[in-house]
Design goal:
Length: 165
Amino acid sequence: MSNGSEGATPGFLVWRLSMKWRVAVDRAVAPLGLTHAQYSLVASLYGMRRGGERPSQRRLADHTGLEPLYVSKLARALEAAGLLERTRDPRDPRAVQLALTERGVEVTRRAIDVVHGLLQQLLEPLGGLDSARTRELTRELTALLDAPLGPSTDSSETDKNEEQS
C-alpha cells in the first residue's frame, strides 16, 4: 500500500485515486489541447455519437456527472477550439445539442488511445484491463455509483463519519 494510505478510509482512497487519475489524464491529453474535463466531454460525445445519439448539454451533464453550467462552459471552449458544434435542438428551442466536428473526432480518437494506455497502466496491478479482478472492481464501482448518496439525517451518524475521515 502506498505511503499515507495505511488505515485510510475508503472515501479517502477513492478521493486519492480520483485525484491521481485526473492529474494523469490532464498531463496525458494536454499535448492534444485538452484538459481532463474536456476529455470527459469529447470522449462521451464520441461514444454517444457511435450509438446514434446527438445529446443535449443537459444529457451530457447527466452522463458525465458534471454540473450543467460547467458543461456549458466546457462546450463553449471546445467550440472555440473547433472541436465541437453547439446547435439549438429543433424539438426544444431551450436545449442545445452538441456534436463533434471532424477535427473533434480526430483529436478525440487520439485522446482515447492515450487514455486507454493510461488505464492499462493503472489496472496492471489487478491483472490488466481484461482481468477478472478488474471486472469485479468495475462491478463494485458501479454499485457504489448507483447507490443513493445524500446528507445523513442522523446527527450521530454524521459525528461517527467525521471521526473516521
